[in-house]
Amino acid sequence: MRYGDVAAVDGLSLRVETGTITAILGPNGAGKTTTIETCEGFRRPHQGTVRVLGLDPVADATELRPRVGVMLQSGGAWLGVRAEEMLRHMASLHARPLDTDALIERLGIGSFARTAYRRLSGGEKQRLSLAMAMVGRPELLFLDEPSAGLDPQSRRATWDLLVELREQGVTTVLTTHFMDEAEELSDAVYIVDSGRVIAAGTPRELTGADARNTLHIVAPAGLDTHALAACLPPATTADEPVPGQYVVTGDISPGLVTQVTTWFGEHDVLVESVLVERRSLEDRFLDLTGKALR
């Protein structure tokens, strides 16, 4: 997809497996929303091929729409319509909609059910948009920033609902700026920058790639860190940056943790605490893009 001389989506290639949650991550302007909108059929790609459930999202839109739920970044409802009316209208357009009353209760829509859409807060609009995307019992869900603007309770309810839908066989593709959301929910993650996929894998694969994790130990000050490092695998370091606080860095495995604690025990040192600190998906994201989350 091009906008003038700018390739917003530049030869990007990805595949989503049935019954999974796939997250597309990237800084603002990376091409995430354009990619999603192309898959949804709102934009026709200038080059390349897009297939959704085996169909062309533009040419086969009539056949595809009943099988796909879409949550837009904004809009999707008439300004004057009440929240509950809009959701029930959406449900009436589908052959086998979800239980609307249950969905209203699950996402906390009842508190603003009779409020006009234009008067809803950002978080309330998000909850309604999510319900509208789900109510038709789709095979595939496209969610653009589904938990943006939500309070912690609504965010957790959204996560739980997406996990339940996955267990029922629903496939979800989402964009998000919340790294914990992607790490918690996703079976697969694609990191996009400048319109291209720069990394892909499971959250565990991405956080484990080239990772050097850290073991923090609190114990009496002044121990011989050189002797500790000498009994550990190569490329593992041991330091005491602050008196009484020891840091072991390397490939932290259960065996390495055992080696470290055994060393302390052999030297008759009582350890106060041991903490394993692993790289997060956000760490990996920043390594790859070199950009803060904006």
UniProtKB/TrEMBL annotation:
<dbReference type="InterPro" id="IPR017871">
    <property type="entry name" value="ABC_transporter-like_CS"/>
</dbReference>
<keyword id="KW-0046">Antibiotic resistance</keyword>
<keyword id="KW-0472">Membrane</keyword>
<dbReference type="GO" id="GO:0016887">
    <property type="term" value="F:ATP hydrolysis activity"/>
</dbReference>
<dbReference type="GO" id="GO:0046677">
    <property type="term" value="P:response to antibiotic"/>
</dbReference>
<feature type="domain" description="ABC transporter">
    <location>
        <begin position="1"/>
        <end position="219"/>
    </location>
</feature>
<dbReference type="GO" id="GO:0005886">
    <property type="term" value="C:plasma membrane"/>
</dbReference>
<dbReference type="Pfam" id="PF00005">
    <property type="entry name" value="ABC_tran"/>
</dbReference>
<keyword id="KW-0067">ATP-binding</keyword>
<dbReference type="InterPro" id="IPR027417">
    <property type="entry name" value="P-loop_NTPase"/>
</dbReference>
<dbReference type="InterPro" id="IPR003439">
    <property type="entry name" value="ABC_transporter-like_ATP-bd"/>
</dbReference>
<dbReference type="GO" id="GO:0005524">
    <property type="term" value="F:ATP binding"/>
</dbReference>
<protein>
    <submittedName>
        <fullName>ABC transporter ATP-binding protein</fullName>
    </submittedName>
</protein>
<dbReference type="InterPro" id="IPR050763">
    <property type="entry name" value="ABC_transporter_ATP-binding"/>
</dbReference>
<keyword id="KW-0813">Transport</keyword>
<dbReference type="InterPro" id="IPR003593">
    <property type="entry name" value="AAA+_ATPase"/>
</dbReference>
<keyword id="KW-1278">Translocase</keyword>
<keyword id="KW-0547">Nucleotide-binding</keyword>
<keyword id="KW-1003">Cell membrane</keyword>
